[in-house]
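hi!! sorry for the late reply, been swamped w classes. u asked for the two structures so here they r. pasted raw, havent cleaned anything up. first the sequence of the first protein and right below it the tokens
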Amino acid sequence: MAGLDETSGSNPDVSLLYDINGLAKAAPGWLDRTVGFVGEYGLLIGTVLLVLWAWWSLRKRAATLEDAASSAAAVVWAPLAAALAILVNVPIRGFVERRRPFLDHQGLEVLVDGKTDFSFVSDHATLAMAMGVGLFVAHRRIGLAAIGLAVVEGFCRIYMGVHYPTDVIGGFALGTAVALLLSPLAAALLTPLARAVGASRRVGWLVWPRSAVAVARETVGIPEARTPGAGSGDRDLAA
């Protein structure tokens, strides 16, 4: 607690804040406006698009309904983990009660207005990293891209003058912990639900892009029908 309230310039947290935020002072106005928008909205929108990309990719790749259900459950967990991490952060912020850096330090370049809530832990960093780690569990390549966006998000929050580096690091840790530690429980709860959705004739396409007949066969274990003559040809080849 005492370390978080340190306002001295000798504090590495404060020094790094000034170093990163100082880049905004030397940057042209258009770049600061771009970083402000990207850090506030753009990167989170990009992460949501990666969630949709992972859903679409895994949905097409699944060979069975069971595979499709487990993949869909993993993708759905990413935004759910982010939402849960934000809820966990509410009491943390209230307990720590750390003020925004521009309220305690002079000369910062603040790129967004209206930030009056507490600073530790960063909601943006928490949300972005929780979705990134959740996606990594579902799809390694897309998950790495999402984690990369989360790191950029954290840098932007410091650049914008609205968070200390430790706010961002704390957000990364919280988002990672929630996404990883609760992933097995989420899979156990969400996979049966995704399986039921995938077996539905109306909304099954959300989980598995197979025909309703194929989904029904997969669900009850009926093998696919063979083309005429395929069986005899197989026997002839075996002979």
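now the second protein. again sequence first, tokens right under
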Amino acid sequence: MATPAFVFKLPDVGTSIFSVMSQLAAEHGAINLAQGFPDFDPPTNLTEALAHYAGLPGHQQYAPMPGLPRLRELISAKTAQVYGVTPPDPTTEITVTSGATEALYAVLAAVVHPGDEVLVLEPAYDLYGPAIRLQGGVPVYVPLRQPDFRPDWALVAAALTPRTRLIMLNTPHNPTGAVMDAADWDQLATLVAGTNTLVLSDEVYEHMVFDGQPHRSALQHPALAERSFVLSSFGKTYHATGWKVGYCIAPPLLTAEVRRVHQFLTFSVSTPTQHAIAEVLSDATHYHALPAFYQHKRDLFARLLQDSRFELLPTAGSYFQLARYRRISSEDDVSFARRLTTEAGVAVVPISAFYHNALDEGLIRFCFAKRDETLHAAAERLRQL
């Protein structure tokens, strides 16, 4: 009997580099500075709220598909307070999702048709390209400007065509830590004016911008807000990445399309978890303190490695730090990252994993969302190289 000729959608995609490096770290007892998650717990009031609501009768069944009304109302108030914008309508403009990952996938599934082009500025999170391809879309990769990894708007303009359905942006940026400013949003607005191109703005690190600079959101630019999906993550903000709770803010027409997909993708998000987040969200103390909290860790890690042979690049936001390692080794970045994990005992991510063509620039990414003692222990090992 002949073997069936199966045709798969992503035959060239393997296991995520983040999972690979984390598994390698576990196998070799390495300090994991690879995958982007904290090694400290969420705020106590949040975990206590979750325990409370998980034990209440009637709080274990499906939440409303778009999210708990109370939580969406609080998201609206927070958005208005943080960004100085008109509060988004909780009923028609805010959708609670199973992490920003689900929100991103729902947006792409809702608006990208076979043959549509989606502009991706790279290096880029490795989810973007495969998620676009799964919709039949065509990722069009535009390199970020070197050496500061900011958008080169002339290159973006050159890549725009009548088939450009969506532009995907990420600020603060993973993996480089670069941030977009008001002038960047102005230039983007000029480029898409008069077109049908939509914008997906991945802003999950919105509360991690350093050196006294504010986070600039697409929501603050009226001409862009009317055509944008803006994604945020409670998992990132509250050190609870495993809870997988995020949200999407978009105009009513766009929100309706996202919800058409969301209802069949996950339908709704964990009910007690939504209640717990709503319990703490009205207190702005936590997220207002995050820039200083993570800037301390950025600066501590930089001080600890200042006498090492790593060359740390500037990082203005997120909780990631890029480093060049050419003074240590001429290996390709994947080989170096693996050896750093297995021999030096510190797991990192090679930056070629963020390029569709595996471009190797001799860079690795550290995650500094770790306890200070973890950073000290990692730096002690790294200084020996």
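hope this helps!! also noticed smth abt the second:
The two ends are 57 Å apart (CA to CA).
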